[in-house]
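Late entry, evening session. Most of the bench is empty. Finally got around to the prediction I had been postponing all week. Sequence below, unchanged from the version circulated by S.P.
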Amino acid sequence: MTCYIAPLPRDQRHRLAPLLALYAAEMRDVLNGAASATPEAQAALLARHPAAEVLLAEDAAGTPLGFAILFDLPEVVFARHCGMLDDLFVRPEARGQGVARALIAAAVAMGTTRGWSHLRWIVPEGDVGAIALYERIASRADWRSYVVRIDPAASL
């Protein structure tokens, strides 16, 4: 499938609401019923967050197919920056057609331009489909992920 990927400006992030609703529903299943905010609240957060960057994948007709949410972070070990891919989602009917790969490739291209040392991300152990893709296109990191739950209502 041909998809077009471009940064989504803050004032357009409300367009993510339908995709965010699908993403939240899917993550509830993967994360054993964790509650989530409304898609409108999620899109509003992305619109006002000072550091969040969003890449949007669309088809030729302009239909949103998926998104990637990224952060440019300091990487003190290398005295450079790195990219953190916080969320990546492709609508179910567009999966298996290269959209996720294209979003990751766009994030890597962004990082190349910015001089990032690497792009990293975490994935829930229960997200089998995503893990299958990531195992094919990336190297598994030597890091463990830990979390301190501050708000029990937001637990994953």
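Two things to note before I forget:
The chain has four helices and five strands.
Residues 99-114 form the longest helix (16 residues).
Will write this up properly tomorrow.
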